[in-house]
Amino acid sequence: MDARNPAKVVKEAVESAAEKVTDTLTSEVPGKPGSAEPTVPEPTTPQDPPPPKPEQGSPQTRTPTGARTGAPAAADGQQGAYLTTAHGARLRDTDHSLKAGPRGPVLLQDHHLREKLTHFDHERIPERVVHARGAGAHGVFTAYGGAEAVTRAGFLRKGRTTDVFVRFSTVLGSRGSADTVRDTRGFATKFYTDEGTFDLVANNMPVFFIQDAIKFPDIVHAAKPRPDREIPQAQAAHDTFWDFVSLHTEAQHHVIWNMSDRGVPRSYRTMEGFGVHTFRLVNEAGETVLAKFHWKPKLGVHSLVWEEAQMLAGIDPDFHRRDLYDAIEAGAFPEWELGLQIFPDTPEETFAGIDLLDPTKIVPEELAPVQLVGSLTLNRTPTNFFAEAEQVAFHVGHLPPGIDVTNDPLLQGRLFSYVDTQLTRLGGPNFAQIPVNRPHAAVNDMRRDGFHQHAVHAGVAPYRPNSLDGGNPFPAGDAENAFVDVPVRVAEAPKVRASPASFDDHFSQARLFWLSMSPVEREHIVRAYTFELGRCYHQAIRERQLQCLANIDPVLCAQVAAGLGLPAPEPTMPLADVTPSPALSQLGRQWPTDGRMVGIVVDPDVDLDTVRDVRRAIFAADMVPLLIAPHGGLIGDLPAQRSFATGRSVELDALLVAAAPAPAPDAPPAPDSQVGAPPAAGPVDPRVLLMVEECWRHAKAIGAWGSGVAVLEQAGVGGTPGVVTGDSGEDVFAGVHRLVADHRAWDRLSASVG
């Protein structure tokens, strides 16, 4: 893990303590539900609420107007050992309504029943229209320095640390949808700066579907489930989506990103973030530049393969959320670096011929390198998911001094839409007073009353100017670091509903993306288009989208057309002459493996000393071992985290086979949902063979030693790329570890598209 990780010392101390307690290392495998140890009988001795788990955190205890209270975070949680009403009266019973005799009617006077049911009836708030499915975590941002020349924003000054809360999300699905669907991901970061809150509301793709916010309801309506049937959920593989994007061809650049591996990220931890829009930065001298924000994951950018994503949606629909929280619990804290692409602030607001106000365009990093200005570490999970990840409210207009908006027409519409949304979803104008939204800067806004007003405002004159409150509050100037609305000249032009001519180029950057992909990545894009369009009912929509693909690249179009059984149309315009951008491909580098999951197949006859050594080596590599055994409980003195019935390959990044387990008593004698086919003939449990075959098919690293080598031979994968065998378990793991740094054994995946 990176030397700058502030939690490294804490993590090492936890690991050291755990090793002293027991060699089984059970405390180091994440996923323990709570901090208390349960007992078989119901506890009867009153005691205070258990503390949060070590990896959990809560918003700082601040007043509604931003002042530190000095109280511990637990002060916002439940208090005392006894059950009470919402107003603190202790209760004898919460299992029986107050009735007129044991068999009589329930009495209206049962205020506890009414209070309990009323609160339950209102526990759910409206979910977000988009980004409903999400997960959040607390962390800290540390500035490297180097941004002072272009912005006066204090949180970017060298050495400055700022608390943050980050929420990741999918765009299309409801709260109950799966994490691993093909979709854009949100990457929203709330910086609690001492100059006011800064919300960097980013996505994992640098471009958007549309160029103007007035189309936002249209694209969302088109991408959401059909209004007559409410299907399909959390996916774009249906007629209304492809009808829209094939008619609004400005969407084609975003669509090809979504059809690429970027649409199915391996985890939130291995996902880039992009601010999408161009912002204006202003420094202390009042000089301005234009800029785009980038988040670069220190673990690299990695994705699932499509079959993995489909399987996980059924086997573990919470896969990304679980991965994020288990990594934090294990001490493999997710890290990103914040980068800036800087452009001159010219009247044309273009760079290298690219319109910087067009949110469907990127500036290739080869033309404008990303300058790293700070690092983000997520080191605490929520204490209460609803209070934090659900009630957090972001807004692109929450900006500190030194950062301002531009005339990007999509950004301009978002400036209105975000506040308008919170008014309905969070019940009124005081959503900034919810603990997770409370700023860490003093608040004196003269706003009063309204639903859920938590502040107890003093004074009698919430207006300006006044003399009754001594003139308070006073306006701030440059000396007090007031926010700067950059005095950009507004063009004198007629009022029109139109876009600049530069917005008319809808295909050149989609072609740039396609030509920047490796052959295997192109193969995945072809398969994604073929699957998605193959789910459309109307052939006319398929044909129209094929015409869009023909204007991007004839090879792409021909391959998708062949999969659909349709002729490939000719382009209707000249193909753009573009230079590929290597920065857009996910392949070609090795990355840290922190937090990756390594399965170890064992049986009761396994050499436990070797398994212990391998587990220690996995932990030392900041990875997480999962013992997979014929049954739960212990194998010798080691805990089995998965059985053959509960473990599946898709939750693993690599597989080690330390034994050749015979079919367990619960091994299916016939096809079932776990195996999907009759058990193969042979001495090995068929579910182990299935796990090996799936890992091989998904190009994951596989290793074996001892009798485990025979399992690979029976599965037919021995001696193939990405498979390591040997006599020493530790040596085999070392070879597998090197392969995981590549993310996959890419040579194992076919690539028919050049």
Automatic annotation (TrEMBL):
Residues 1-22 have a biased composition (Basic and acidic residues). GO terms for molecular function: catalase activity; heme binding; metal ion binding. InterPro entries: Catalase, Catalase_AS, Catalase_clade2, Catalase_clade2_helical, Catalase_core, Catalase_haem_BS, Catalase_immune_responsive, Catalase_large_C. It is an enzyme of class 1 (oxidoreductase). Residues 40-54 have a biased composition (Pro residues). Residues 1-78 are annotated as: Disordered. The keyword Metal-binding applies. GO terms for biological process: hydrogen peroxide catabolic process; response to oxidative stress. It catalyses: 2 H2O2 = O2 + 2 H2O. One of its GO terms (cellular component) is cytosol. This is Catalase. Its cofactor is heme. Heme binds at R128, R167, F216, R414, Y418, R425. There is a cross-link at H395-Y418 (3'-histidyl-3-tyrosine (His-Tyr)). It comes from the Bacteria. Its EC number is 1.11.1.6. Belongs to the catalase family. HPII subfamily.
